[in-house]
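> example.struct
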């Protein structure tokens, strides 16, 4: 076997095999086993398969009362937790709403020793700014830098910042700074990407 390098990708040439390998079954498996083996196929699709291919075994037990836990879990949909109109409306302009979160500590230490990062994402433009930090306590300092850079670049003021309830955002000093600057702080639930 040989692979050719094309840029950063190795292309591997293989011989195609047109034979389909299928294991045989006794035909006595219950519907739950067949359903799982065929990728959680609905029974109506299985009935269609019976008419499309030769040798597909008929299932003895009818699946009228079969409840598949995997299929049930797959159909569960999680709603957004926010029903407040002010939080669901997209911002009307740049810097109307900034999303922020802290990541870290990173497992691999970079040369500068910064094991944390803070992100600031403008809701309107989706512009992302990332600052690296040595400590979580640097969030306010990085926010001040972000605020100055973005407000000078756009001529607009930050209206709201949305973050989780992390201590770096809910501390007294951060709250006082936002209050003095006229920035409203919206908090979301931790570990929820909404």
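> example.seq
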């Amino acid at each position: 076997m040989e692979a050719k390098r094309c840029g950063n990708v190795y292309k591997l040439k293989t011989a195609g095999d047109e034979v389909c390998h299928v294991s045989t079954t006794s035909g006595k498996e219950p519907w739950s086993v067949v359903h799982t083996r065929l990728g959680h196929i609905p029974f109506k699709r299985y009935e269609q398969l019976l008419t499309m291919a030769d040798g597909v075994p008929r299932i003895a037990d009818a699946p009228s009362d079969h409840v598949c836990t995997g299929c049930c879990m797959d159909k569960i949909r999680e709603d957004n937790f926010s029903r407040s109109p002010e939080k669901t409306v997209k911002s009307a302009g740049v810097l109307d709403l900034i999303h922020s979160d802290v990541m870290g500590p990173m497992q691999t230490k970079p040369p500068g020793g910064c094991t944390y990062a803070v992100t600031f994402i403008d809701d309107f433009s989706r512009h992302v700014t990332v600052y690296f930090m040595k400590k979580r306590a640097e969030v306010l300092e990085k926010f001040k830098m972000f605020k100055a850079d973005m407000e000078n670049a756009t001529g607009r003021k930050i209206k709201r910042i949305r973050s989780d309830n992390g201590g770096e955002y809910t501390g007294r000093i951060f709250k006082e700074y936002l209050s003095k600057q006229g920035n409203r702080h919206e908090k979301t639930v931790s570990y929820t990407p909404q």
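> remarks
The chain has two domains: 3-75, 86-187.
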